[in-house]
Specification:
The structure holds two protein chains of two kinds.
Chain A: E1 27-41, H1 47-50, E2 55-67, E3 73-81, E4 87-94, E5 98-122, E6 125-151, E7 155-176, E8 178-200, E9 204-217, E10 222-225, E11 228-233, E12 238-251, E13 254-267, E14 279-298, E15 301-314, E16 317-319, E17 324-326, E18 333-335, E19 341-355, E20 358-371, E21 378-390, E22 396-409, E23 434-448, E24 451-463, E25 470-485, E26 491-510, E27 513-534, H2 535-538, E28 540-559, E29 561-564, E30 568-582, E31 587-602, E32 617-618, E33 625-639
Parallel strand pairs in A: 6-10, 8-32
Antiparallel strand pairs in A: 1-2, 1-33, 2-3, 3-4, 4-5, 5-6, 6-7, 7-8, 8-9, 9-12, 10-11, 12-13, 13-14, 14-15, 14-16, 15-19, 17-18, 19-20, 20-21, 21-22, 22-23, 23-24, 24-25, 25-26, 26-27, 27-28, 28-29, 28-30, 30-31, 31-33
Chain B: H1 8-21, H2 29-36, H3 40-43, H4 65-69, H5 93-101, H6 116-119, H7 124-127, H8 140-148, H9 152-157, H10 193-198, H11 213-217, H12 240-243, H13 280-283
The chains are: A mainly beta, B mainly alpha.
Chain lengths: ~650, ~290
């Protein structure tokens, strides 16, 4: 251990150390850049890719630092400020004394700019307009907050606050005889406060913190649908509070760490309407405790152990009813359930260096989960894994990892009243018996000092061997290869390709029969890039990046004969050409051109204007995308 | 350099002895810079906090260069190596990191010793740079690039049909994970998996009157936060995902069926994350 605490300082005499040759930089330092350009995009979805919607695009980037001779410093970090996804952070203070920071940012995610619906939102409800109206489906998050800390080497106190305002519209559905997919508004505020204190010594640390979070939905608790009142409930406002205690201690080469968290989540918003129950006081108590130990017990041998306890206790109260819901038609009874979950997880691990450049790791993991009000109350997971890493060979590194885990648990009691909607032979995959096999092989090769090739192959299989109905089996296979070549001091090239296949098999139960379904998710990702520096006496650099991605999912359904769901894919080609030019030692220009070719399809996006194609379903029209988009931006940078 | 070819064990033996002997220099940094000041990387130390003598915790306020690189010993006549850092350094990650960890302790690194990165023998200097004005990995515009140089699967996942917004640094890996380890699974920053998600998705937190058990159990039961070929980062799309646990209403499932078109099961069961509706429609997560 070469830590300062272990240093032999008996013979040190620093009285003559002057540091005359040291050149600390005081005053302002850093770079600011301003960019302006245009986006040409017929689909606002392109903003997810290009950062801005059609039209003018402007942004400011800054990384400016101020340092005084007395140790006080200030900083401004701006990242794409002015775009739909920009942020800025201001900070000032002195390390070991006091610091303050302020942050602001926006994030916008576009789903679709042309969702078509004859229903429009007004006065806390949806009403038929008589015409097909276009809606934007997008979410904008505006985040701001501040942070303070005060204290030195031994103790430190801190407080911070973050607020996130979320606005926009989401895809939702209203069910009332016929079904209408609608653009439902979003308007909420989430606040988070945290305050705490830390105490630290040379080989120990302890801290305590209080964390509070409050979610306020600024909308009514339900939306009407024509004459139907409270047809669509909205997320209720809620709160959460946590107290956190942390501590760690190092004894020579053995390190202990522990944490205890207790908290509760509450919700007592008005119910969507008065019905079977008149009132609700929601309260969930949570307890999380974790303990970790790691020790280098001998040269080359390290042991680790951990234990985690997590408990969710639902103490909610219902008023004015007996907590049983009865289906007027079928007579089915659903009993009000308070879901409690208790987890116990223990892990043991060992890592041993057999020889220089050869290391084996192995571990055992046990997880026990108790869940109330489910047809299976307890599950037990046992898992083992091992790995061999070889770094001893010239120009080659290998890593082979394999793992096996098995889950079983208590008896299924699937015919109980609480699960009457599901068949007794159905096994929910989250609690069903499962055997999992995983393997991964990594290799990296450096045939030349400036050429590296890395490849990884992965395989995983989940076998739900005792499930007759539900998810039966799932395979996940994939690889990726990347190559990096520093062809010269001036030219760098890289390329990569990767594929993944996730296959799953289900035997599905319906009221009208059974089916055998197979789903294959396929993904292909490939790209290359190069940058050449050093044109025009090193003033000009040019570069290019290309990225291709193709996501696709295919589901076949066999009920007697085999049929397939329709197209479900997303394909994109992204190109970025850029050039930087140094005007002077302090000033520079950068020109970017980005091109995006994006297309996706979802067979469920049925153009259903006028409620024609699917009886009793109003869709939001064709939500697929198919566009070309371009961005040109010129940026000017100035180094302080 | 001169010492690059030396076997790691031999190198560590020399440095152990040298560190224990504690033969620090007479002039501190001035002596080191007599030779090393011509190196721009070395001098860039003074652009950042580690090069400042006016910060009490900074190495330059104490043993200067030798605070990190160890006592000079007889290095000046090139007969002994110094402690060096980085992936190519002939020194184990554990030994390298012991230098950094002697100052950088505390809550953010309390679980370092059992963290994935420590067990994988990742050196601090594999990700961090000290001899710079600003460590690039602390800049969210470059953080993801550094992480995904090793985490290639997650790099690919970001380009799937649906993923969290990582492209412009709106979110970064450290929005959810603590690379120095944490007391939660997968080195997540909050107390547990669901609570990490609630930081941005508090509307899913409830507790609702009628809960959907897998929702309160584990967000990852249905979502893959790194990305999916399905919308909404769902591990499977509806109705297949729902059918994994539920008996379906109707086996007839071509694309124009009311059970598959539009929002599939969610056409009627609109409140899959929980409902506050007091009667039957609530228990069926319909309103």
């Amino acid at each position: 251990n070469y830590g300062l605490a272990n240093a032999n300082l008996e013979a040190v005499d620093t009285s003559k150390w002057e540091c005359k040759r040291c050149e600390p930089v005081n005053g302002y330092h850093g770079e600011v850049s301003v960019g302006a350009g245009f986006v040409d995009a017929q689909d606002n979805h392109a903003a997810n890719r290009l950062g801005d919607t059609d039209g003018f695009a402007g942004e400011v980037d800054a990384d400016i630092r101020y340092r005084s001779e007395t140790g006080y410093q200030a900083a401004i970090d701006a990242n794409k400020l002015g775009s739909e996804n920009g942020s800025v952070r201001l900070a000032a203070g002195k390390a070991g004394l006091a610091n303050a920071a302020f942050n602001y940012g926006t994030q916008t995610h576009w789903k679709n700019d042309g969702a078509i619906s004859p229903f429009a939102f007004a006065n806390d409800g949806f009403a038929l307009t008589g015409a097909d109206v276009s809606h934007d489906l997008k979410v904008k998050r505006e985040t701001y907050g501040f942070a303070f800390d005060l204290g030195g080497d031994l103790w430190n106190t801190y407080a911070n606050f973050q607020r996130q305002d979320k606005t926009g519209a989401r895809k939702a559905s209203i069910y009332s005889g016929s079904i209408a997919n609608v653009a439902a508004p979003i308007d909420s505020t989430t606040d988070r406060w945290e305050a705490g204190a830390k105490l630290a010594g040379q080989n120990w640390h302890t801290s305590a913190a209080y964390v509070a979070s409050k979610y306020d939905n600024n909308l009514a608790n339900a939306f009407d649908f024509g004459y139907q009142q409270a047809a669509l409930g909205t997320a209720p406002s809620n709160e959460a509070y946590h107290v956190v205690l942390n501590g760690n201690y190092s004894l020579s080469r053995t390190h202990f760490a522990g944490r205890f968290v207790t908290g509760k989540m509450t919700q007592n918003d008005d119910l969507v309407q008065i019905g079977g129950l008149n009132g609700f006081d929601g309260e969930v108590k949570t307890t999380d405790a974790s303990f970790r130990v790691a020790s280098t017990v001998a040269r080359g041998l390290r042991l680790t152990a951990s234990y985690d306890y997590s408990d969710r206790e639902n103490n909610s109260h219902v008023f004015g009813g007996n907590g049983i819901s009865v289906d007027g038609l079928s007579g089915d009874i659903t009993e009000y359930a308070r879901y409690d979950i208790t987890r116990n997880t223990a892990k043991l691990g060992a890592s041993y260096r057999i020889a220089q450049g050869y290391r084996v790791d192995a571990g055992y993991e046990y997880k026990q989960v108790e869940r109330s009000d489910l047809e299976r109350e307890e599950t037990n997971d046992h898992g083992v894994w091992g790995r061999l890493r070889v770094t001893a060979l010239d120009n080659w590194n290998f890593g082979l990892k394999a793992g096996y885990s098995s889950r079983d648990g208590s008896e299924f009691e699937a015919n109980r009243a609480t699960s009457s909607e599901d068949n007794v032979l159905l096994r929910r995959y989250t609690i069903a018996d499962r055997d999992r096999l995983e393997a991964e092989f990594k290799v990296s090769h450096t045939p030349l000092a400036n050429l590296s090739i890395d490849a990884t192959v992965r395989y995983a299989n989940d076998d739900y061997s005792d499930s007759e109905y539900g998810l039966i089996e799932a395979d996940d296979f994939g690889y990726d290869v990347s190559l990096n070549w520093g062809a010269s001091d001036k030219l760098n090239l890289h390329a990569f390709v990767g594929q993944q296949w996730i296959e799953s098999e289900q035997r599905n139960l319906f009221q009208t029969g059974t089916s055998f379904d197979q789903t294959e998710d396929r993904f292909l990702n490939a790209g290359f890039g190069s940058v050449y520096r050093g044109l025009f006496t090193d003033a000009l650099s040019v570069g290019a990046d290309y990225l291709y991605s193709d996501s696709e999912s295919e589901t076949s359904v066999t009920i007697g004969s085999t049929g397939q769901y329709g197209d479900y894919f997303a394909t994109s080609h992204s190109v970025n050409l850029f050039s930087t030019y140094d005007l002077s030692e302090k000033m520079g220009l950068r020109l970017d051109y980005r091109y995006e070719r994006y297309q996706d399809s979802d067979f469920a996006n049925i153009d259903n204007i006028g409620n024609g194609n699917v009886v009793n379903l109003y869709t939001l029209g064709n939500l697929n995308h198919n566009y070309n988009a371009h961005l040109v931006m010129l940026s000017f940078s100035y180094a302080l | 350099g001169t010492w690059d070819e030396m076997p790691q064990a031999e190198m560590e033996q020399i440095l152990d002895t040298k560190f224990a002997d504690g033969k620090y220099s007479r002039q501190g940094a001035d002596g080191c810079l007599m030779c090393h000041r011509r190196n721009d990387t070395v001098m860039a130390l003074f652009d950042g906090v580690h090069g400042r003598a006016d910060q009490s915790k900074s190495p330059m306020a104490g043993l200067q260069c030798e605070a990190c690189h160890g006592p000079q010993g007889t290095h000046r006549n090139k007969s002994e190596p110094m402690i060096v850092f980085g992936g190519d350094a002939p020194l184990s990650a554990e030994k390298q990191n012991s230098v950094c960890m002697s100052c950088h302790q505390g809550e953010e690194r309390m679980a370092w010793h059992t963290s994935t990165h420590n067990l994988e023998e990742v050196a601090c200097a594999d990700c961090h740079k000290v001899h710079v004005a600003q460590d690039p990995i602390l800049d969210k515009a470059t953080e993801v690039e550094t992480c995904t140089s090793c985490h290639t699967r997650e790099k690919a996942d970001m380009n799937k049909r649906s993923s969290h917004p990582m492209q412009w640094g709106e979110m970064t890996c450290t929005s959810c994970h603590n690379p120095h380890g944490s007391m939660a699974e997968a080195d997540l920053i909050s107390f547990n998996l669901n609570d990490t998600c609630y930081a941005c998705h508090a509307e899913k937190r409830g507790p609702f009157l009628w809960e959907h058990q897998p929702v309160v159990d584990n967000c990852a039961a249905c979502h893959n936060p790194h990305g999916s070929v399905n919308d909404g980062m769902l591990t499977q799309r509806a109705p297949q995902l729902c059918l994994d646990c539920h008996q379906g209403h109707n086996a007839d499932r071509d694309g124009t069926s009311i059970h598959t078109a539009g929002q599939s099961c969610l056409n009627c069961h609109t409140q899959v994350h929980g409902s506050n509706h007091p009667d039957r429609a609530g228990s069926k997560l319909q309103r």
